[in-house]
Amino acid sequence: METRSKPWSFMLLAVVVAEASGFMPAEAAGWSKGSATFYGGSDASGTMGGACGYGNLYWTGYGTGTAALSEALGGGDGGWCNPPRAHFDMAQPAWLHIGIYKGGVVPVLYQRVACVKRGGVRFTMGGFEHFQLVLISNVAGTGDIKAVWVKGAGTERMPMSRNWGANWQSLAALAGQALTFGVTDTGGQTVVFPNVVPGLAFTSSLQFSY
Predict the structure, then answer these.
(1) Which of the four pLDDT bands, split at 50, 70 and 90, describes residue 193?
(2) What CA–CA distance (Å, rounded) separates 172 from 155?
(3) Do 115 and 141 contact (CB within 8 A), yes or no?
(4) CB-based contacts of 23: which residues, under 8 Å, 6+ apart?
(5) What is residue 24's DSSP assignment?
(6) pLDDT category, 146, cuts 50, 70, 90?
(7) Of 167, 188, 204, 183, which is closest to residue 52 (Cα–Cα)?
């Protein structure tokens, strides 16, 4: 496992409500000001999938504690999500931990924290002979991937490109080969996953750590 020296940049965000009076106190050390709303129903079915491409959030281990992030936090495309707003558009079950259904927009304080996951990083395969699409999920640490390479049993190492969200692609003929992936997160840590078995899904025994 190769580790490069870079600052941590954790992607799981802990959100707390400001005082009920509406007064937003000055940021404590490590905390920043933002705002939050919610969308979708109480079962979070309307927020399933999302821009990260995880699909069924229960199966991939993320559940309903999710939020769409504004441009300033890593995504978003307008309105409350315009920069420089730090805004969370949360799934309703997550929202109800910090606000009430009729609450509208609430001020929050937030900070980035490490993603803690059970088990190893998961690879879900798609595509066909000359197009491999891989969803990489259950990622601990920063929880966010910035680069991936792949090596087949009969090929050299080659970079993959981001298709969308957490899905990465290769246009090489890799079907039927045991694959080795090198995955680098946004904190700069690289983990090599050897002999990922071809098939619909594979859970490794390796995980990112700090």
Answers:
(1) very high
(2) 9
(3) yes
(4) none
(5) -
(6) very high
(7) 167
Which is nearest to 147 in space by CA: 132, 133, 136? 136
The top-level CATH class assigned to 2-113 is: mainly beta
Other beta carbons within 10 angstroms of residue 56's beta carbon come to: 9
Q: Which pair of structure tokens corresponds to residue 67?
A: 């939020």
Judge contact between 143 and 10, C-beta under 8 A.
yes
Q: Which ranges in the chain are annotated with CATH 2.60.40.760?
A: 122-203
Contact at 8 Å (CB) between 70 and 80? yes
- Considering the chain, tell me which residue range(s) the CATH 2.40.40 domain(s) occupy: 2-113
* Biggest CA pair distance of the chain: 64
DSSP state of 92: H
The structure's pTM equals 0.72
CATH code for residues 122-203: 2.60.40.760
Length, in residues, of the chain: 210
> What is the C-alpha separation between 158 and 16, in angstroms, rounded?
43
